[in-house]
Structures are given as C-alpha cells and as structure tokens.
Amino acid sequence: MATVNDISKSVRRVDAVSKCEGKAKYLPDIDFRDCLWARMIRSSVPRGKIIKVNLPDLPSGYCFVDYRDIPEGGHNYLHMIATDWKCFAEDEVRYVGETIGLLVGPDRTVLADLIDRVSVDYEEQIPAVTIDEGLACKGGAFVNGNNIHCHLKIETGENADEVFKRCAKIVEETVETGFQEHIYLETNGACCCPEGDGYVIYASAQCPFYIRKSIAPLLNISPEKITVRQTVTGGAFGGKEHFPDVLCGPLLVAAHKTGKCVKMVFDREEDIENSVKRHPSKVVFKTGLDKEGNILVMDSKVYYNVGGYLSSSFVVLQRGCFHVAGCYSFPSFRSEGFGVATNTFPSCAFRGFGAPQTLFAVETHMCHLAQMQGLDPLEFKSRYFIKQGDTTSTNGKVVEKVMIPQMLEQVLKASDYRRKVKEYKIGSGRGIGISFYNHGGAFTGNGEQSLIKAHCRLHKYPDGHVEILCGQTEMGQGFHTILPKIAAHVLEIPIEKVVFEDPDTSRVPDSGPTAASRSTMIVGDLVEKAAKLMKDRYSKESEFEIETEYEHPEGYPWNQDTFQGYAYLGYGWGVCAVEVEVDPCTAEVAVKGVWSSHDGGHPVDELIVHGQVNGGVLQGIGWASTEVMENTDGHFRQTSMSDYIVPTSMDCPRQGVDLVDNPYEWGPFGAKGLGELVFNGSGAAYIDALSRAIGKKINAIPVPTEKVMEYILHGKKLGEAD
Amino acid sequence: MNVKLEFTLNGKNVTVSTDPLRRLIDVLREDFGCTGVKEGCSEGECGACSILLNGKMVTSCLIPVGAADGQDIVTIEGLSETEKGKLIIQAFADGGAVQCGFCIPGMVVAAYSILCENPDPTEDEIRLGISGNICRCTGYDLIVDSIRLAAERGGSIWKK
Amino acid sequence: MEEVRAYIPETLKEALEIRSRTDCIPLAGGSDLMVSNKRTTGVAPSFDKPVLIIRNLKELKEISVNGKGECVIGAGCTSAEIAQSSVVPWHLRQAASRMGAVALRNSATIAGNIANASPKGDTPGPLYLLDARVRLTSLAGEREVLVSDFIVKFKTIDLHPDELITAVVVPLSERNFDYIFWHKVGTRKANAISKLTLSQAIKFDGRIVSDYRLSATATGAKTNRSREVEKLIIGKEITPALIEQVIDAFDEVISPRAMPEFRREATRRMIRRFLSVASERPENRVIDTFDGFHVTGQPEPVF
C-alpha cells in the first residue's frame, strides 16, 4: 500500500535495539540508591469490618503506613474519575486485596519475614461476587441501597415497547463474558522519592498526569508538587491506566512519612491476585422480529461487574452501551446499562474499554438470530450494516465512509470463507466464523474538548533537533516512533532529528491519557499541526517553541447528561474470520486460520499497525478460549502464569492481515484509532467458528477445552430457541 | 551461610560470595547488573529471564545460584556483544519484532538457541522454539518473521 | 555457627555421604522446588531443610542400554536429553518432548518429575505403562522399585533419607507393541500443564490381544493404571462390547476431582478410539485421537 514517500512505509522502531539488548531500563531495573522497599498489607476477606491489624514488633528502620499517616487536610481517596476508591481501607473492606497498609523498610528478606507475621482480625460479612449476587444484594446492599454503582439508558427510533407490540416474534437471549487479566509482561511497579518541597514518582504507567491528579489530594498538595516520570513500560493494555494510582498513592504517603525513596514492585502472583481486570459482563437481549424474520427492534440490558468501587467504570459502561448495536443499524434500538457493585477487585480499563463485551454479545446474538431461521449469519448480518450518514446508537450520525463491504471482500477472499462454509457442515468438527466490529476513537463525545483539552509542544533547538513535549507514553504500541515520524515527515527532516522522551510531568504539557485509542488520532494531529506551524520557521529561527491545543470540529454536538449526539467522530472498523478444528476425542480446539481486515484510517506505519493487529487479535482469541479467570468467594482462583493461560506462539497459525485505506479527516495523515479496535472482534469470530464446528450454541466465554466438551455433551443445538 | 561461588559470566570469570539458594535471576540482576534478564512470572513459565547455561537456554528464576558454580553463563548483555547476537537484534529491529520489549531479551536468547541448533528453521520449528517465551503484545508473527530474517541474513554464520 | 543452607557436592559419592549424615532436600533441575518454595522477587526461596544441589553431577547424566536390553536413564537427565535420545522408548520421548517448553526441558530432570509425585506430572504416565523402575542408591547399596510403587500417593514417595534416585530403568520399548498411543490434553498447545494424558499400547497374537496397557495422568491423586482392567481384554478378541467393558471398568479406576466430566468423557473416547482403530490393524503403528479432517464432499457430523 505504501509508496516511497508515504508515511505508511515502515521505519525501524526507535526503541527496538535498546530493548533487544536489555539496555532499556524498566522500573525494576533502576537502582534507586538506598531506597526503602514497600510491601502491601491487603484484605484477605471480600467483605467485612476491620477489627484490628496485628503487627509484629518492627525492627528499627521499619514502619507500617496506613490511613492514619495521611496528614491533616489530606483526603483518603484516589481520584480515578470517581473518588470512591480509598487509598487505604479504614474500617471496612469491600474486596480481597484491598489496600490496608504498607510495610516499609530497607531489606526485602526482613520485610518478607515480617509480612508472614502480620494478621488482620475482621468481622466478616457475606459477600456478593457475581453480577447476579450483586443485583440480588446478597449480604445486603453496600452501594446506593441497590448495588447499582451507575446506570444509563439510550434509545433510537420508535419507542421499543411500542414496536414490540407489533412484532411477530420476540427472541430473548443472554450472553456472558468473564474476567480477563492483562498479563502485561512487566508487572506493576513504582517508586516515590521526596525531592525539594515535592515528590518525584517513577512508574510503569500509561498516564503520568492521571497519577499526579489522583494522589495529590492525599497530602492536600497541588498536583504540580508531584512530578511523575514514566519509566519504560513493559505492556499495559489498560491495566496501567488508573491502576498505578493504587500503588503510587500509598507510596506517596510512605515517602511523606519516612522522608525517603520508597519502591514497590509486585511479583507476578501478587499482580494477578491484586490488580484490576476486564469487567465480566452479562447482556440480556430482547429482539423483536417481523414475520419475515427481519429485526424491528433490539433492546438490551447491559450488566457489568464493577467490583467494590466505581472509579472509572461508569465510562466503561457507557462505551459498552454505545457499542451494543455493533456495526448495525436497526429501525429501533434501546439499551440500558447497569454497573453492578460486587465484592470483587474493582474492574477497570482493558483494551476496548467496555466495547468488546457488548460487541461479542451482539455478534453472538446476531449469529443465533440467523441460525434460528436457518440463515447463514453472514447473510443475515449483511442486511443491517451501518453506513455513512446512518444514525448511531446515541442519535448522532456516522460521519465517515464505512468500508465494511470492501473489508468483507478482502476477508472472504483471504479465508476462502464461501467455499468453507459450504463444505464444513454444522457439527462436522470443522468450522469457520466471521465477525464485524468497530471502536469509537478517542474520548466519548466532546470529552476531548471539555475534559482533556490536550496540549502539545514542539521545541526546536539550535542544532536542528526538534523535541516533542507531551504526556503520551510508549507502552509497546509504538508511540515513540509514531509521533517523531509524524513530525519528521511534516518537517522533512530525518526521524533521528526528532527527540521524544518518556514524559516527565514537570516539563511536558498535559496531552491527556494514553488510552482510548486517542494518541495517534488526537495527539498525533496536534503534533502534525505544530510541525506545520514550525516548518516555515524551522530553518530561519535557531530556537523556538510551538504549542497546539485540541479543538473539536464544529457541528458535531454531544450532550454528556443525556448521552445524545455524536459519541465518536471517527470509528475504527474491523472484520475477522477464524477457522477451527475440534478433536472428536478430546474436544481440543485447533485454530487453523485467522484473517482480518481493519480500517484505522490511513496507517502511519504499516509494520506497527501489523503488530497491533496480530497482538490484539490473538489477545481476543485468548479471552474467548483459554483465559479462564474465576472468582470464588471473592478470591481469584488463577494466580500465576501457569494457571492463567494466555496464548503461546503455537496456539494460532500466522494471521492473514489486510487493511483498507480510509483517510480520516481530522487525524494526522488520515490516521485514526486502532489499538483497541483490533481486540474487539476475534473472540466472536472464534466462537462463531467453534459453535458451527460442534453444532452447539455458545452463549458465554471463555470456552476452554473442558467447556467445549460440556457443550458437545449438553449444549443446545445451533438454531434451537432457548 | 554465604558460599563463595565461581562461574563464567559473559566470557569473564567471576566470583560471588552469597547464599547459594538465591535465585540466579536475582544474583545476575542485583550483583552483576545484568538487568536485561527480566522477571516476568517467577516460575519458569514466561521465558523473560532466559539465559544460556552451558550453551543451553534455561530460565534463571528456577535455578539456585549454587547450581551455577563452575558453569558457563551468558546473558543478553553478553549475547548482544557477539556477531550472532547482533545479527538477531538487527533482524528483530527491522522485522518489527519489538513492542513493549519486556519479553524481548529472552526472545533473543530463544532465537539464538533455535538458530544455533538449526540454521534454516521452518516456521513451525521457530514457533516451537519460542513457545516458552510468552509475548502479550505481538501475537508472535513478526517475531517469527524476524527470526527467519536472521536465519537468511546470517546464512553460514549459523553453521559455525 | 551459621546454618548451612545448601550443599554442592562434586561427585555422586560425596552427595551420598551428605545424604547419609544429613536430612536434606535433593534439588536437580529446580523447576518444581524453586517454585514451590519461592518467596518473592529479590528474596531467596525458603526451604525447611538444607538443600543438596545435584544439578551438575556428571554420574547422573547418562542414557544407555543395559545387558538386558533395558533403557537406563540417569536421574539427572533432562527432558530435552530424553526427548532427543533414540534409545528412549517412544511413550517417554513423547511425554518428555511435550513437558513445558524448551527452557524448562533443559532444566527439568526425570528424577525430579518422579519425585515431585504430582498427578499432573508428564513422565509417570509412560513410566507406569512400561513398568519402569527407579534405582535408589545409598552408601549402603542399591535397590530398584517400580515407579508405580515408588510414588506412594499424592506428593509422597518411598525415598529413604540416605538415598538418592540415581537412574530410571525402562524395560520395554515400542518394539514390544504393535500399536502405541500417547496424547496430552494441555492447558494450551505448548508450554502447558496436563489436563489429561493417556498412554496406551497393545500387542496382538493373531486376532487375540496378547498385551494391553493403559495409564492416565491428571485423573486422580496419582497416575492411574489398572492391571485388572487390562486383563479384561488380554487373551481375547476385540469387540465393540469388550471395548465398552474396558472403558466402563477404567472409569471406575479414575477419580478426577476437577473437571470430572471432561476427564472421564475424554478418557472414554480416547480408549474407544485406540482399541477400535487398533482392532482394524492399520498400517501406521502410532494411533492418535484423530487423523485430522480430510474432508471432501459431504462429511458426516461428528458431534
């Protein structure tokens, strides 16, 4: 696709060699001289009152830090959109793993010995763990009197209740998804050092400015007193969007108390047991059909397991509801979302941010609606593809050209779908499935304008170097290469002349979080604009700066109170096909092929995009297949990388990767969001393929081997009504 | 009780007086500054701490340093100084193998092990050779391509 | 005096001397013990006894064939070495080659895999099937015990305090059988722990089964093998009814706790598959769970 001067033509990633050589310094690799180490004391019960924390005698130089160490005027909360998640538990605990305190001292072995001797007395209460238990207020409601943390309702077209009255058939179906653990290869870690009259935080994190804002209230200081320096970050996937605050808050209090650098790095078991996960979900559809089987109305109730505290989950739930119509346009549509309080570790961001759950649900439901009528899912789904100018789930319009038909053709051709669908009979042990999905890029609605107000600066130095100053982070997705490439391309200088370092909040402007597939689309655009402004002056002036600020295009209104209007100006779009083979003896599933096509606008670097597609697609298949994360009585049951099963190099063959070139009006060189999109559909395609192979209806993921066997033995036949 | 241990690390003879039950990964990282050896899982599942012990790839989180006494150890720090190591690293950089990079030093060690045993590996052989190195970013395809690229570029050097 | 945390003997004799006078934990590859005794990053693992590090004992590294035609595998041989050795019987090579992934197979030893006595261990299944023995050596002498007796129960072995496992003796090779079967259902395609593994082997005398063996791992507190079940079919001609009888009898033997339905059903299907295919006397001696789908035209549904 790329021509010689096209920005899509790949360049070598700027961070590749130092990472290969082992020279890149991740947080655990940095030697903070004479630092103290911290270990967390956490709740071991899912719900209860803390009666007493029993500490052993602490040797000199060791101390315990808890809520009582927050100075007068400070606030014991972490500001993660909402402010309900406490930094330290005081009298009650709402989930296993809730931070009670830190044990701090110079020697890790001594700390480990001390930790073994800490105990906490609780008055235990009955926990609610699942969505259903939360809704039933098992053990008594603990949030809002009904365990509903948050709620929204959206509808388009004629009132759903009216439409149902004239439907020939109404189909109800429930689709469920489970917890998913990020398994970023580098576990969470941070270090907080007192410096001058403030503090410096070093963290493996996505959003340095979030940390500052979140934890400053603990000491009742202005966020500017805290400098956050991101360290090379070994993967995040949303798991280091807000969660680093849960480490950095207590570390800040510990540094305040001890006056020393305090470092904490989770080991893997600790990280899996005590970190945020993807929200488990339950989507209950009620779909009305006319007598020819056409959809007249699709109504859904979307339940997300939020856990003990709301924090960022309302935004996740909103995105879930906005995406529950998938890539389709229905005459009438309604969705109601409920964020359910339970006594599990609070759920948080994970690649897709609420969209994957509802997209999986609607794709699966659409397959079943088709199969119920004896139709091929592809044929049925094609009737409802949304197009440019169509109404979205929030009564906005689709602004861009939707290239699903072209992408579909690419995937059909690459996968030989039509032949295989004919050849692989239902229940034959072989199956091919297909899914359609999208992802609204950047913050919802006018959030970029009203909440973030991203700024970005370019600094030209006398020696001709240009430095990009913004808060965006590299976490593996390639942003350290993307952004310099954009600047270099505009300025027509070599990429080596552009400097872009890991952000330090004291010297870069706040360009918003590295999240929501917004970095290339929004901040990339700010850099492109700044570079254009710089270009004429570049050779004339020795040293100067250009600063740009995000401006929302006129004419695309959004009301955040009613959730009405243009939720997203640019969507990424995807089509994915998966082929599987099922062992008739053991029910083992072998993935025989994966083909996808994505529209992320005009790609800024083809190889980086390719890598994003491969990684996201495989992560999505993992979510649907082997990645079982159970929670029993409030405790996660999978606690290591030997029992939480992510895909290896042997679990999927080489992927077929196609892209379409669909330049986005407001993105840099026509690029738009992609990083989350590529996760959003492979799970549904995998399950479609699997259910055809075994001839059984599958309504819940993940589906590991033993579950496949269960479906084979007891599942409902495809096409049968519930 | 500390024990004096001697071994070869990246071609140099070194000694260390330490608890022989400390994990080799901790000793390499903390006593010898080999922080390219990454800790991903602490139980031999992820391959991020892979090193060469007497020329064979092992995970250094599973080995007590006492077992390294008298043995030959090469970490990514040493490997990246060699002709073969450099060749792999350049291929990884050109082939788009690297994203977050945390698995990558271990992955380079795995690539080296594959190519030393089999200078002309098939895609399946490469996938098998890196199957103990978990990568959560790349979906592996570009890593596989990069190892093929290193095989092709290296040609006869892999037969030495 | 500070406590001794570990001994690092240079010879087997030295190791046995330490065993004779000290209550200690032998550690070879480390792949089980370093995990089960780990604490956290930067903190040494904690063992309740001194550790005897025998990873590098050269005397335990050899694979050979003895005068009786038995394969003798040094206790310190790694899974990689076993998987690559042409003299090691087929079932055991299969199991060794699918244990963990490359790096683990370069560390994990056969003695460690037996001594761990985990019902999910990879090598005990084939070793039970092939009537393998462990050789136990002390300063006082040597004894040999069937692996199936040596593993007493879950996580418990019959190792005397002064002994070390020095070898594993495998008397039977695939040449003793007409058809062989080994299939591991892992948690994923590679780098996996066993959810269920079945080893089977059969020999015919004309139409009559002269030997049949079956072992299963991850189906109970220890590896399952039942000579009574095997006797049901030995001396008889295979019939569909007899296959079902074997299946039902073996179902009584196994006692899976987690995912019982899956483990029972997949076990039934794998036994049925092996015996029914073997009874047809195909050319290929290795029988697997299925041949792959070579579908052209209209296949019958299999589910």
Task: Furnish the topology, listing elements before pairings.
The complex is a heterotrimer of chains A (about 725), B (about 160) and C (about 300).
Chain A: H1 16-20, E1 36-42, E2 48-54, E3 63-65, E4 92-93, E5 99-105, H2 108-115, E6 119-124, H3 131-135, E7 148-156, H4 160-165, E8 169-177, E9 189-195, E10 198-203, H5 208-219, E11 226-230, H6 244-258, E12 262-265, H7 268-273, E13 281-289, E14 295-307, H8 313-322, E15 332-341, H9 355-372, H10 377-382, H11 404-415, H12 417-423, E16 430-440, H13 447-452, E17 455-460, E18 466-469, H14 479-491, E19 498-499, H15 519-538, E20 544-549, E21 558-559, E22 564-565, E23 571-582, E24 589-599, H16 606-624, E25 631-632, E26 635-636, E27 655-659, H17 682-694, H18 705-714
Parallel strand pairs in A: 1-12, 10-11, 14-15, 18-19, 24-27
Antiparallel strand pairs in A: 1-5, 2-4, 2-6, 3-5, 7-15, 8-13, 9-10, 9-12, 13-14, 16-23, 17-18, 17-20, 21-22, 23-24, 25-26
Chain B: E1 3-9, E2 12-18, H1 24-31, E3 50-53, E4 56-59, E5 72-74, H2 76-79, H3 83-95, H4 104-117, H5 123-129, H6 141-154
Parallel strand pairs in B: 1-5
Antiparallel strand pairs in B: 1-2, 3-4, 3-5
Chain C: E1 6-7, H1 12-21, E2 25-27, H2 33-36, E3 51-53, E4 63-65, E5 71-74, H3 79-84, H4 90-97, H5 102-105, H6 110-115, H7 124-129, E6 133-138, E7 141-146, H8 147-150, E8 151-153, E9 156-157, E10 164-170, E11 179-186, E12 194-205, E13 208-217, E14 224-225, H9 227-231, H10 240-253, H11 260-279
Parallel strand pairs in C: 1-3, 2-3
Antiparallel strand pairs in C: 4-5, 5-10, 6-7, 6-10, 8-9, 11-12, 12-13, 13-14
Helix pairs in contact in C: 10-11
Beta strand count of chain B: 5
Query: What's the CATH topology label of the largest domain in chain B?
Result: DNA polymerase, domain 1
For the largest beta-sheet of chain A, the strand count, sense and barrel status come to: 7 strands, mixed
* Low confidence ranges of chain B: none
Oligomer: heterotrimer
Our measurement of the CA-to-CA distance between the termini of chain B, rounded to an integer number of angstroms, reads 43 Å
The pair of chains with the biggest contact is: A-B, 56 and 54 residues
**How large is the count of helical segments of chain A?**
18
* Biggest sheet: strand arrangement of chain B: 2-1-5-3-4
CATH level-1 class of the largest domain in chain A: Alpha Beta
Find the count of extended strands of chain A (DSSP E, 2+ residues).
Answer: 27
Radius of gyration of chain A: 25 Å
Largest sheet of chain B: 5 strands, mixed
